Amino acid sequence: MVGTIKLLDVGDGDAIIVSLDKENQNLIIVIDGGKSGHYETKVKPELVKLLREKGKDAPDIVVATHYDSDHIGGLIPLIDDYITNIREIWVHCSPELNHKALTIYDSREELKHLKSREQFLFESNLMLTNSHIKEDAIMTKSSFIIESLKQLDTFLGKIPPHKIRQVYHGDSYEGWPEIKVLGPTKEYYDSLFPKDLSLEQLVIQETIDYRSEGIINSHRFMELATYLSDPCQSLKTESTAKLTPTNKASIIISIKKNDDKFLFTGDAGITSFKNIPDWKNELSNLYWLKIPHHGSDNNISTEIIDVMQPKYADNSGDRHQDNNVIACIERNAIRVRSTKNNGDLHMAI
Fold first, then answer.
1. Which fold has domain 2-348?
2. Beta bridge pairs of residue 31
3. pLDDT at residue 291, as a whole number
4. What per-residue confidence (pLDDT) applies to 221?
5. Does 42 have pLDDT greater than 90?
6. Among 36, 100, 225, 279, which residue is least crowded by beta carbons within 10 Å?
7. Range 46-85 burial, b when 16+ CB lie within 10 A, else e
8. Burial class (CB in 10 A: 0-12, 13-18, 19+), 185
């Protein structure tokens, strides 16, 4: 098997196109699509060129690792263009939360630029009952989550049900055992999104990175000083990292070529990796790593890096990129790159 990975420069977002060839078979996988505006400018030109080269009408698999708008937004117009010939869509559905989110916004076209009365009441109630969280965090996160859930609802509404696969640990694609879903397990996913989870509770959980902002800032100078001598010492641990359930639930995919492992991580975090069965073996000695969550130090620890020890690593990052993460991975890697510095990135399989 041979192939290519194209990691497109979409800022703090993911848009990845994978092409695999073996024994007169070819597979094209799109993993996330950046924000909605990235489709025409970044994703579509690369995809059209690759499909023409391989003589295909559409990508075989489209993966929405999770429903944040910087990952799923660009997949919506892709579905419009190619759904007839796409074989499978890998995505996790949250229909109950989608319905609740859709009721928050007024559906009338002329009021789309305004917040509905229901959203104002929703945010006001959140701020009253969770006064320890900053007002701007509540407003920013509630808008982001509701918009992302609306995009997920739109995305799912364009896909015939028989093409949707809610994939979990151990799943693969027929005829391609080299491709394996490592995470999440069904049990871990359900623990992140229990059936009785309300939209209000989800928003509060999604503000987790704001709650300890003061504590984080008070230690920042010390971390930067440590970073100068040893960047790995300044990384967070499982107990100090702050990550939202949506990111933790990211679909993690491994592609294996002989003994070489290529790992696609979405915005997964430390607990996501540790909830993979036999995680140390599954993640050990990677050939290539897509650094999780745009290089944020909330998503990977020194312990995880020491297990992975990737020879090559690429990051799709911008303002979320923490340079101590890049520097820690560089200790033992042959090459570490970022779209922030290098633009679109190409990796051979």
1. Metallo-beta-lactamase; Chain A (3.60.15)
2. 16, 63
3. 98
4. 46
5. yes
6. 225
7. ebeebbeeeebebbbbbbbbbbbbbbbbbbbbbbeebeee
8. middle
